[in-house]
Amino acid sequence: MLAITGATGFVGSHLVEQLKSKGEEFFCLVRANSKTRFLEQLGCKIVVSDFSQEKLEPILKQVDSIIHIAGVIKADSKNAFFKGNWMLTKNLVNASIKAGTKQFIYISSLSAAGSGQTLKKKTEEDPDIPGSWYGQSKLAAEREVTKHPHWVIIRPPVIFGPRDTGLLIIYKILSKGILPDFGGQRYYSMVFVEDLVNFVINVISNHNIKNDRFFVCYDEYFSFRKLCSKISNILDVKPKSIYQPKIALDFITTWNIMGDSMFNQDKLRDLYKKFWICSNTRAKLAGILNKLTPFDEALSKTLNWYRKEGLI
Ligand SMILES: NC(=O)c1ccc[n+]([C@@H]2O[C@H](COP(=O)([O-])OP(=O)(O)OC[C@H]3O[C@@H](n4cnc5c(N)ncnc54)[C@H](OP(=O)(O)O)[C@@H]3O)[C@@H](O)[C@H]2O)c1
Fold first, then answer.
1. How does pLDDT run across 253-273, given as a tens digit for each residue?
2. pLDDT in tens, 114-135
């Protein structure tokens, strides 16, 4: 039996969809006020918890593997990040150790490692230097996870795909014929959500993978300009470059002008860093990274979903 946290979110929803199609036995651990309609429609078993260690312990007794995806990616205080990432993870790890859960898989982030200084891809051996509160809270959570006797930490970079709204703002701006230029160049590793989920499923079924960390991403990294150019091709637009000075971005994030977007003040701490690139070599060597969806196809699938939902 598997227990999944974060199933109501972007990444978790894809994992449960895949697990369901494979006939796996699992339940979704959610909060009392979580919106569970999608999970109910899929026919998933749902268990409500307040995520305190005492309440989690009996729930996790029947569980072989816990896949902990839940986390806070947007918040306006350091405390909120630490509560939603570090504290939540600490409770889950302690409860699962006491309950005897065999395997603890955690979806962390490249932000826990921090950005690089050059175009050299980050590896799992590089020192961790998270810059944002988000990254610091994910690293603190990772340290809790490593207390479990059988842990696996997955550190995705930017994740995109259907049901994600992180890249939506970029699709939207480009579709209006504007190519945002933040000054200088920035580079990103990326992973398509369906490929990430396949990787997680490979980890679940491969108990030889133990006490290890993995970056999961495409071989290629993308400059912001190249990413915009690829999205523009898919949108079939020829946008005009417009310089966005830092002050404009600060204004947008301070007043949350874009609404539910990836831009907020803490995100900016990461966004101004230039090198968010990592290596998938260790994941490949472990033999659990399947052939990835071609990048353009993944961008198209994402656009199709935005269009279907009337977001673009
Ligand atoms: N999206 C990315 O580009 C990206 C990149 C790297 C790493 N990650 C990591 O991937 C994971 C999933 O991200 P996502 O994009 O799927 O996020 P998301 O769509 O915002 O979903 C977050 C999930 O976490 C749950 N959650 C949040 N706070 C919680 C709490 N205090 N207690 C219990 N559940 C809580 C939410 O449940 P409710 O429905 O109850 O709110 C929701 O299911 C996160 O851990 C994130 O750090 C994401």
1. 555 544 444 556 677 777 778
2. 999 999 999 999 999 999 999 9
- Listed in sequence order, the residues at least 6 apart from 301 whose beta carbon sits closer than 8 Å to its beta carbon are 161, 162, 192, 194, 293
Give domain status of residue 62, yes or no. Answer: yes
State if residue 92 touches ligand 1 by the CB under 6 angstroms criterion.
Answer: no
CB 24 within 8 A of CB 197: no
User: Tell me: the pLDDT tens digits for 48-83?
Assistant: 999 999 999 999 998 999 999 999 998 989 999 999
pLDDT number for residue 251: 53
Distance from CA of residue 264 to its chain's centroid? 16
Owning domain of residue 85: 2-163+189-218+277-292
Specify the residue with its C-alpha closest to ligand 1, atom 26: 70
Q: CATH number, domain at 9?
A: 3.40.50.720
Does the Cβ of 180 fall within 6 Å of ligand 1?
A: no
